[in-house]
Input
Amino acid sequence: MTGLLSGGPGYQPPNLRGTAFDVNVSADAQSAAERSGVDLAGLVVASANRALALLPHRGPMVITVTFGGVRQTIPEIGIAGYTDPRRGNVDITIDPEHARFGQLLRRWIPATVAHELDHSSRLRTAPARPHAGPGIGQRGPR
Ligand SMILES: [Zn+2]
Output
């Protein structure tokens, strides 16, 4: 249990790809990430498995990663995420022109995936209260 909560180096969450979620990374996004030394699809899958181990998700959803320019990403980190409020599917855009692209992916893809899956899980477990209760990384009520 400690391993699950801390997510320590030895901890391997169950692989839920194909059951709780699927991942579609566009070919150009995957190639750009590979040139920076990052297996983007692999990173998204690992991030989703870690996040979903902590979330009361319901039913399958899809995480899609595509290119987005500066207007579709958060300028400082070159990444943005969006959760479809009806189906709970997640869209992530990345800006391949951003400086230190690989470093930013390694740092921000796990956080972005966890943040959006938290929205997605809440939408599908309590649609009327998508922001109720503590989220990942937040404290519960005292
Ligand atoms: Zn959000």
